[in-house]
Amino acid sequence: MSRFQNLIEQHTATLQQAVNAIHTRDFYAHWPEAPSGKIYGENANADGQQRFQEQLNNPFTRLQQTGSSNHGEETSPYGFPLGITYPVADANTLVANAVAAQQQWRSFSAAERAAILIECLEKATPHFFEIAYATQHTTGQGFVMAFQASGPHSYDRALEAIATGYYALTSFDTERTWVKPMGKMEVTVNKKFYAVPKGVNVTVGCSTFPIWNSVPGMFASLITGNATIAKVHPKVVYPLAILVASMQQTLRELGVNPHIVQLGVPSPEVPLTVELINHADVKTVDYTGSSAFGTQIEQLCAAQGKVCFTEKAGVNCMIVESTNNIDAVLDNMAFSVVLYSGQMCTAPQNFFIPKAGVKEGEVVVPFDEVVARFIGKIDAIVNNEKMGPSTLGAIQNTGTIDRVAKANTLGLTVLRSSSTIAQPGFDAAQTSTPLVLQADANQQDIYEQEWFGPISFVVPVDSFEQAVEIVANTVKKHGALTTSCYTTDSAKQQHAEEALIYAGAPVAFNFTGPIWINQSSAFSDFHGAGANPAGNASFADLTFVTSRYNTIGVRSIG
Amino acid sequence: MSRFQNLIEQHTATLQQAVNAIHTRDFYAHWPEAPSGKIYGENANADGQQRFQEQLNNPFTRLQQTGSSNHGEETSPYGFPLGITYPVADANTLVANAVAAQQQWRSFSAAERAAILIECLEKATPHFFEIAYATQHTTGQGFVMAFQASGPHSYDRALEAIATGYYALTSFDTERTWVKPMGKMEVTVNKKFYAVPKGVNVTVGCSTFPIWNSVPGMFASLITGNATIAKVHPKVVYPLAILVASMQQTLRELGVNPHIVQLGVPSPEVPLTVELINHADVKTVDYTGSSAFGTQIEQLCAAQGKVCFTEKAGVNCMIVESTNNIDAVLDNMAFSVVLYSGQMCTAPQNFFIPKAGVKEGEVVVPFDEVVARFIGKIDAIVNNEKMGPSTLGAIQNTGTIDRVAKANTLGLTVLRSSSTIAQPGFDAAQTSTPLVLQADANQQDIYEQEWFGPISFVVPVDSFEQAVEIVANTVKKHGALTTSCYTTDSAKQQHAEEALIYAGAPVAFNFTGPIWINQSSAFSDFHGAGANPAGNASFADLTFVTSRYNTIGVRSIG
Predict the structure, then answer these.
(1) Fold of B5-313+541-556
(2) Inter-chain CB pairs, A–B, below 8 Å
(3) What is the pTM of this model?
(4) Average pLDDT for chain A
(5) Is the ipTM of this complex over 0.90?
(6) Is the peptide bond before A540 cis (omega within 30 degrees of 0)?
């Protein structure tokens, strides 16, 4: 009997619910998304805030790993340095730790690994509020988004990867007495099948969703028997450091080598990413970030025959053709633009609107009126003192501020100017409200680039069909995480659906109310189609887990 | 209701049995392997032979595809030209046909595609005997092997790919009404999930197992909605031409565009392979063949971000340490060497035997005696008039004859000389009996190369552990399709099992009786570990099918 039998039994229901959810694609959340004291404890917020305050300007000492130096360069987008330092180790040290830890980890069964990993997540749940503050003050997200994205939504994505891996690993029986009838005799062979992990994983994280974008690759690697090194962005270390430190502590308490998961902290002297990827014992790589560096990493991996999953940049498009309620449509569109100042990989950038206007039931709302009301909706959110600052958040990277300035020099009609916005309590916050420009349909050289951040383009088109053609081409040439259409015409919807799906992007129709295309739900929505230039990863399809191991057989007679 | 409803119902039991078999890894064969008139019809052999004779020296006119020229260059290894010509089309034509056919094919459900593909196989079953003669006289296999390998065993591998693909495609529900509770309200989203095929597949076949090695990639591509082009070896066209022609005819009768499967016939003017792989609409590639060309193809695919599954060459090793019945061991080893003159990718090449001898129960059989009896067993099969010629078959490629000559010049001790052997009825047959050489353990530069064909090395070793270390290194450096050990010591077995499995090769222990490590059973044995330099393909694990499509979601409200 497994020495983890109690743990397996304790987490069986969670695992089974998660596996069931990935099959049905129904709504499922193991961790409620509300940052509520009723759910997470009345003192949870205050405790988290206190731990955050205590950590500021101090070394981060919770990891079960050492470094040859200490380094930290995080600054809150809300305008103050964090002053935290982390242990920095070189690639050889991290990989050697990982290889050593893997020897034990790969010998565990899928059920054992699933139980241990779920236990790690459960034990790390009390850190949600500290993680939220850490995320807010590294990424610039508003507090609620920071809580949801780095806490419950991330943990659910991690659980999804565990469940998908468990499902794949248990798809084939691991032992079989094989009996082949041969006329009057028969041959009996005892068979065993090992899921042999490919080897050490490196997950290269990003600066905007440091946990959400990293845990799928990390947990997909772990459930399939590999050790993982979470290489963080130098300016966004703290959130994932909390999770990794908690996991390492839980693992140590369980008698498992904690180095199956390590934090890879870069410094100016130890940039780490390329060194890790080129290490002979690193066999799989996950990457979220810019297209340029992502393409370089893909090529490094391809040349060495390594498995590489990427989520790079894309250009997300919306088409507005007809609706029964244009007010609800524009509310939804505006919120998608304002949310985290357009710094989500799923945020829409280009809005295609027929020159002849948008049909609302039997009425046609003229193009100019649609645009004016869209801008008005954005203004209403931005200028709402309660909602605006917390929805916009702050700008993570000064490059994004520069990009807004550059967009202003394109010579396009400015439909809405960008400005700063006050973040109460944070006078030095780096902010930028949405810039909305109008481009002609033939200015594809401009609007088919990714303008990451609070920059959008309204593009008047001759027809819905023209818009679909442009969007499908954008998807094929430049990639996309999301596409979206508003139409009440079922034939048009069917046409767009097939054109966009077979171009390689997911598509959302007629989103209104409290759901936005920026969102992607664990267990139900595959995040990243894996089928266009925005990346080959999909959280979490079967390939995302099965590419991390091989099934190898042992046959014996007697 | 599907217009293929009857077909789906007709083949449901076959599909379910196959899916069940891939789960349990138990023995399963949909097509009995015996070339028996009782199973396949009393006239089946005579009819097949007649069709073969009628096809000789005539154009092959059964395909539903045309060419810009006709070409054929097949010669039987048994010593006569086949004189058959095939339509040759260029890469652009073949890919354009495939793209056009895919539009319809991708719209079918997994159940529809599975039923149609099983119907294709069932309708092609009456061709088993003609396929056997075609295989014998292109590959040089003996008739019974040719029947089994290209007929029932191939069709079972095809069915396995269908079943694995069907299992993967049906792992996630394709439609869901998703309801997210949000306090007192809820959000409802209608979700659909498309399995979007990556695009046209090219399967590059080999000269020794032209159907068996090609159908897994072809059927894995087809079940996942892609069209496939089976690019054949210029000297081994006929066997797969029969299957593809039969499939095309069945598809046409079902109202399905037959160009979802096409034969790619090369000619000196149209070499085809690289042109096909470089075509923008070709998205996945399967390859079986030499390591040099395979590595070139892997690099071509990597540079273009295409999925590439390879089975290249490996160096298969056996270790003989102890047994309760050395006679049975040597019988088994000898047959593995003689079978198809070592022209199987799974055939053992290197035999590691302790200098101190092999333990048989309490007795130690000295090294020299083990070797002498091993050679004696080979001689007994080779010189058996009934068994020898049909087991050895003929040599497919004159390069293999040259390789035997080269091996003779290595300066190693010749334990058994190679010679020709008479193939009754075929005076001009190209044959070569096994050459067995003795090498020192430190002559790895010689015996760690692949010596494809009837060439083996006996290597005396100091210990079992030394042998395991050498074999594990061979697997890691040069790849292997199989490894094998004979030992009665359970601790030694456990040590070898872990060392070889984690090196990345399957391992067989103590094979005696009518089962040989050369064999790999559909539905139970994963062929190709996918984890060592011998290739990244595994027939048929989940990655082998899931890498051929992406799951992309449609969300809609209202």
Answers:
(1) Aldehyde Dehydrogenase; Chain A, domain 1 (3.40.605)
(2) 195
(3) 0.98
(4) 97
(5) yes
(6) yes
